[in-house]
Request: fold
Amino acid sequence: MQGAPVIVVNANTKREQGRKAQLGNIQAAKAVSDIVLTTLGPRSMLKMLLDPMGGIVMTNDGNAILREIDIQHPAAKSMIELARAQDEEVGDGTTSGIILAGEMMVAARPFIEKNIHPTEIVNGYFKALEDSVSILDEIAQQIDTEKKEEVMKALQSCIGTKFAFRWGTLISDLSLQATRIVLRGGNVNKLNLEIKRYAKVEKIPGGTLEESCVLEGVMINKDVTHPRMRREIKNPRIILLDCTLEYKKGESMTNMEMTKESDMTDALQQEINEVALMCNDILKHKPDIVITEKGVSDLAQHFLLKGNVSVIRRVRKTDNTRIARVSGATIVNRPEELQETDVGTLCGTFEVKKIGDDYFAFFVDCKNPTACSIILRGASKDVLNEMERNLHDCLAVAKNIYQDPKLLPGGGAVEMEVSARLLEKANKVEGLGQLPYKAVAYALEIIPRTLSANCGADTVRVLTELRAKHSETGGLYFGVDGNTGKIAKMNEINVWEPLSVKKQVFKTAIESACMLLRIDDVVSGIKKKQQQSGRQGGEDEPQETFGDQRDG
Reply:
């Protein structure tokens, strides 16, 4: 027994321990942040990605790029999760978050090589995070959300780095309009959910981007069920249902015993009477439009057409709730329970239009709608998809501003200011934690550095000048002008960012770096693929065959 190695872990597993694992994680994080490094700022590059289905994605949205990339390394995977969390939480700042997180990891490398314990590094990082969040709160400016131009400042800066910027204020106007319409519902705290639910983006290829608009109402991709039904109605009375307008079959096996030849016609007549009864329950409220989420039989269409009613069937649940919000109708489950208060009368015009190859039903000119459809037109699907991603970011920024109406100067000015203030505070930090604390301050400079590098400016000179400006009092607004690469005052060129986005970027970057630094063991390939082992072991044994296989 002496000298025989004790094997605990399966021989097939790959294991990295201690410093090797930590340095591997740092490298992986840096590799992920390098992918999106060139997509920061207004002079950013686009990435073209081929998905497995052969489709093409062209974008400079950090989250969209990382979502499409297939990655092996576990630490890199967690960085991608981080971009997704940032996107879901605040909708913008994904690229900056990833770049910062990668830089935080690189900043920790010298300490790990000098055998400083990761816990010490993590403590220094968390201390720096606390201080930077309090500095952000301190330098943020309150704005008045009632003034359109103040909100537009932040929205234009958000769009400034995107593909949609070439069309001026188009996307920011759309998102501001949509947010204001949804806000009429009055629930600011749940605005994120409300925007996802009640501001639907409809992409219709064709036309020009300038034709994009926000409807004071809703549009759905449906036509009326019968060609003779009215396709344009002023001030319609709308009834919304989520039940079928068909004859209900018996739930279990139904046997009918027929003794004379008229029995069959009687049975069919009963079905007709049942449907007629259902339609009468609806028609007595004198509706102009009936919309249901389920099917409508030919018979029901016939009865409703006689009553001069237009019918739309198989509408999505989400579309139905939006129509309810704009028309004031209530979605009803059984036609016999309909009441006068359930009928929607707030919609001004209903019309069906043909755009391209499809028919679309419009419910517009509504009185104070609390839901809307955003229609995007564009030359190709790729352009439309990119515009939709930009619109999603812009809507998220609008939502952040209404929830927390505070702005910070953009263009790397905030990062330089926080960096300068952290370096001042660093001397008061005791013990080993001071070194990682300073490292965070220097790592924050990656944002202005990348901004100027993407413009092709002289990075070293720009950063030295910026440091000098921020070390003096009153230098808060100095940052990099992303278009020229020169230093400019952010309040003069109107580059602003919402406080909530910036806070989330700092938190995500530093917290994820701390989490990855505390990993000192990476074990991969823990379980063998059982199918392979089963196949190898069972070659000589007869295969268990039964059913179709045995019968050939």
User: Anything to note?
Assistant: Confidence is low (pLDDT under 50) at residues 533-552. The chain is about 50% helix and 15% strand. The two ends are 54 Å apart (CA to CA). Residues 5 and 449 are 52 Å apart (CA to CA).
